[in-house]
Amino acid sequence: MLRAALGGSSFVGVFARATDDCVVVRPDVDDELREALSDELEVPAVATTLGGSSTVGALCAGNGNGLLVTSRLRDHERERLEAVIDSVTELPGRINAAGNVVLANDTGAYVHSDLSEEAVTAVEDGLGVPVERGDVAGVRTVGTAAVATGRGVLCHPKATDAELDALEELLGVPADIGTINYGAPLVGSGLVANANGYVVGQETTGPELGRIEDALGYIG
User: Fold this and answer.
1) Less packed terminus of the chain by CB within 10 Å, N or C?
2) Cα–Cα distance between 196 and 1 in angstroms, integer?
3) Distance from C-alpha of 216 to C-alpha of 177, rounded to nearest angstrom
4) Coil, strand, or helix at residue 139?
5) CB 171 within 8 A of CB 148
6) E runs forming strands in 105-196
7) pTM over 0.85, yes/no
8) Torsions phi, psi of 163, nearest 5?
9) How would you write the pLDDT of the chain (220 residues) with one tens digit per residue?
10) Which CB contacts under 8 angstroms, 24+ apart, belong to 87-91?
């Protein structure tokens, strides 16, 4: 576990995104912290902007089959990603902050309810998994309301039992609720995780860490 701030913010999920193959992180993170992120998650770190923005956690999502990114991706950013990731797919349409609107692991993807058919097809093709539309606790930006890995899903504390059951069936792993950063409900904004480990905002409390570790299968 690593408690951190990125760009002075405890909402680390806005500025970084991890899969089991890499962690994408905003480019101005200092070398020591970037190495700490890489060590904790046991994957190479790719320091880059996406679409010229440092909010890279909000703008990409991925799994073992590839990375899904904003359609505003620039050529030099694509080159930086493709040096580490084999498959990089742009999310078409008006709603293309992929990290905010896609929750995925290697088994399935749960996406914003207003995502177009074209965008859903791009998710299916880019991540190689079945896709379902929906929300979590009334939040349509499902990538901010939950975090999924190959071990578990941590969801907004107001997620219903029916939503947790649906996520468990789609993503093939246990789902539970929790918070980050001393009670913040949008767990995806303050948690960066893969099967190997996790990075969380520095204001996250001990009991919150316990819920994260239990939900994402790091215990036992």
Assistant:
1) C
2) 10
3) 10
4) strand
5) yes
6) 109-112, 131-134, 146-148, 153-155, 175-177, 191-193
7) yes
8) -65, -40
9) 999 999 999 999 999 999 999 999 999 999 999 999 999 999 999 999 999 999 999 999 999 999 999 999 999 999 999 999 999 999 999 999 999 999 999 999 999 999 999 999 999 999 999 999 999 999 999 999 999 999 999 999 999 999 999 999 999 999 999 999 999 999 999 999 999 999 999 999 999 999 999 999 998 6
10) 87/126, 89/122, 89/125, 89/126, 89/127, 90/122, 91/119, 91/122, 91/123, 91/126
- Reported residue count of the chain is 220
Q: Let me know if 31 is exposed, middle or buried by CB neighbors in 10 A (0-12, 13-18, 19+).
A: exposed
Return the amino acid letter for 132: E
Name the helix (H) or strand (E) containing 91: strand 88-91
Q: Tokens representing 68? A: 């899904």
Closest CA to 32 of 6, 12, 1, 50: 6
